[in-house]
Amino acid sequence: MPPAIVLHLVYRFDIGGLETVLVNLINTLPTDKFRHVIVALTDSNPQMVASIKADNVEVIELHKQPGNDPKIHYRLWQLFRQYRPQIVHSYNLATLEYQLVAFLSGVPLRIHAEHGRDIYDLDGSNKKYQILRRLVNPAIHYWVPVSEELAQWLVNTVKIPASKVNRIYNGIDLTHYQPIERNHAVFTVGTVGRTVAVKNQLCLVKAVEQLLVRNPQLRLKLQLLIVGDGELLPQLQTYVHEHQLQDCVHLLGARTDVADILKDFDVFVLPSLAEGIALTLLEAMASGLPVIATKVGGNPEIIDSGINGQLVPVRNEQALADGIANYLDNAQLRQQHGAAARSKVEQAFSLQAMARNYLNLYQYEDRTKISEQNGSAMPKNN
User: Fold this and answer.
1) In what order do the strands lie in the sheet with 309-312?
2) What is the per-residue pLDDT for 370?
3) Domain 4-171+350-374 of CATH type 3.40.50.2000
4) Contact present, 286 and 177 (Cβ < 8 Å)
5) What is the number of other CB atoms lying within 10 angstroms of the CB of residue 154?
6) Which end of the chain is least crowded, N or C, by CB within 10 Å?
């Protein structure tokens, strides 16, 4: 049989955790079984396109206008009829409504992934978004949340039948991230992520600033590295400049050498307001770094506080500062937590485990068997 066509639908194919998961999945799945088409509702980043190793992948940009853009529905209808994908896999709320077009186009297997929430619905309580998910649910065979917290929310709050919810953890290629011995002259706190409101990097900057106020001598032996680009980068730059933190806080922008940059960190901090399963957190842990993260979303499923890192309250710069200080002069604690962090990722968050789970879900020719195993009402044909 020819490879099954999987059409991945994303809002923007840009540098980010969701997109990296997608690329890693495509690069790992067998090319004799699947051919992939990535459709970005808006546009794509050439760096992300270049990271795709498989040679049978197409990337299509629809250049959607902000707000409602009815012609996108018709354009997708054309693409579905042109490519006749066996599977349409959409990602996050911005792409959800287009599963109705996939349904009307007769796509046999329709999957929607929930990778996390955005600034407009941090706790998932937005009734309009809940209703939208319920309305589109009949057109979807499987919902794929990336954390147990998201899975329980889909079932208990959104009221999606549990038989249709298939939690698959994000995974990383462990060969790219290796623990190393760290003997840095300057203690380096670091974070990686898009500079957008939900990632809340400004809280981390303020936490480091608080440490410097507590002990001005730390200016000689403490620095913060922030990797990432986004709409709030100018705001961060302005704050750093106005508060005269340039000697300690360094904004590196978007980078493609994150694995190497992580070698310069002593501790990784994720101050997000909401998370699914953060890929950057997994990468840091795989690099043998102790981690500090807010107690939101899927973070508690990754971090065992006091064993491989620390969980802190959200929007609490003092708690972040105290967490950093806890590691600052305790090399033994950093080593212990870093080793435990690597072990946790090896056990539950490998790329191979993630790809295996998606392979089972994608097996179009065996979809009846999958349906029976999961107890869902997936139709044999449309």
Assistant:
1) 249-253, 222-227, 187-192, 267-270, 291-294, 309-312
2) 39
3) yes
4) yes
5) 24
6) N
